Automatic annotation (TrEMBL):
Location of the protein in the cell: Cell inner membrane; Cell membrane
Organism superkingdom: Bacteria
Keyword Cell membrane in record: yes
Keyword match Hydrolase: no
This protein's name: High-affinity zinc uptake system membrane protein ZnuB
SUPFAM superfamilies: ABC transporter involved in vitamin B12 uptake, BtuC
C-alpha cells in the first residue's frame, strides 16, 4: 500500500476509535446540534490560526474550547432557548470563519478540504495530533465514565449523590471539542458530527449495556473507515463523504436486521 493510504487508514481508525465512546454520550444526551456548533466553529479557528501564525490544530482546539466555555456560560443564564443559541452560534462562527478567510488573499487555503475533509492528505504530524488527542480523550472518558453516566440518566439525582454536574458537563463539551479539532482533517467541518452520531446510533441497536455500546460504536466507525477508503480507492470518490455513506449504510443495516431493546 502507498504511504498516503496507510496514513489515511491509521488516521481514520484513530478518529473512529475516539469518536465511538464520545459519540455514545452525544446520542444519549441529544447533543448532536451542540456538536455541529463546535464543528462549524473549527473554520473560525483555522482563520484565527493563520492570522496568529500558530499551528492550525492547536488553533482549532483553542477555538472549540473557548466556544464550549462560552456556551456553558450562556446556557446557565437561560436568557434564550438552547437550540436557538446553538443555531445562532453555529452559523455565526462558520460565516465569520469564511469571511475572515476571504481577507487573506495572500494565503492559499484548501477550503473544500476543511469543509469536507481530505483523508488521503493526512500527514505524519496529523497522526501525532490524532493519537495524542485520542489518548487524552479516552483517558478522561475512563476517569469520568461513571459521573457522565450519572448525569446522563438523571442530573438532579447525580447532584444529590455528590456529582458536580456543571464540571462534568463542561468536561464532556471540552472532550467533544478536542475530538472535532483532531478529526477536522479527516472528515471535514461539515461532516464531523456524523462520525460521532451515526456509528453510535448504529451500535445502539446492537448493545445491551452502555459499555458495549461504546465499544460497538468504535468498531462500527472503524469498519466504516475501512469500507469508505476501499470505496474511495476503487471508484475515485471523496474519502471523507465515502466514510460517512458507509456509516449510514451500516446504520440502516442495524435498524433492519436487529430487533432488540436499545440502551
Amino acid at each position: 500500500m502507498a504511504d498516503f493510504l496507510i496514513r489515511a487508514l491509521l488516521g481514520g481508525l484513530g478518529v473512529a476509535a475516539i469518536a465511538g465512546p464520545l459519540g455514545s454520550f452525544v446520542v444519549w444526551r441529544r447533543m448532536a446540534y451542540f456538536g455541529d456548533t463546535l464543528a462549524h466553529s473549527a473554520l473560525l479557528g483555522i482563520a484565527l490560526g493563520i492570522l496568529a501564525d500558530i499551528d492550525l490544530n492547536l488553533a482549532v482546539i483553542l477555538c472549540c474550547v473557548l466556544l464550549a466555555l462560552l456556551l456553558v456560560s450562556l446556557q446557565r443564564k437561560r436568557f434564550i432557548a438552547t437550540d436557538t443559541l446553538l443555531g445562532i452560534m453555529a452559523h455565526s462562527t462558520l460565516s465569520l470563519g469564511l469571511v475572515a478567510l476571504s481577507f487573506l488573499p495572500e494565503v492559499r487555503v484548501d477550503l473544500m478540504g476543511y469543509l469536507f475533509g481530505d483523508l488521503l492528505a493526512v500527514s505524519q504530524e496529523d497522526l501525532y495530533w490524532i493519537y495524542g488527542g485520542g489518548i487524552l480523550v479516552l483517558g478522561m472518558l475512563y476517569k469520568l465514565w461513571n459521573p457522565l453516566l450519572a448525569i446522563t440518566i438523571d442530573e438532579e439525582l447525580a447532584q444529590v449523590e455528590g456529582v458536580n454536574v456543571t464540571q462534568v458537563r463542561l468536561a464532556l463539551m471540552l472532550l467533544v471539542g478536542i475530538v472535532i479539532a483532531v478529526a477536522m482533517k479527516i472528515i471535514g467541518v461539515l461532516l464531523i458530527t456524523s462520525l460521532l452520531i451515526i456509528p453510535a446510533a448504529a451500535a445502539r441497536r446492537l448493545s445491551s449495556t452502555p459499555e458495549r455500546m461504546a465499544a460497538m460504536a468504535s468498531l462500527t466507525g472503524m469498519v466504516s473507515v475501512c469500507l469508505g477508503l476501499a470505496a474511495s480507492y476503487q471508484w475515485d470518490t471523496p474519502a471523507g463523504p465515502s466514510v460517512v455513506v458507509c456509516a449510514a449504510l451500516l446504520f440502516l443495516l442495524s435498524q433492519l436486521l436487529v430487533r432488540r431493546p436499545s440502551v
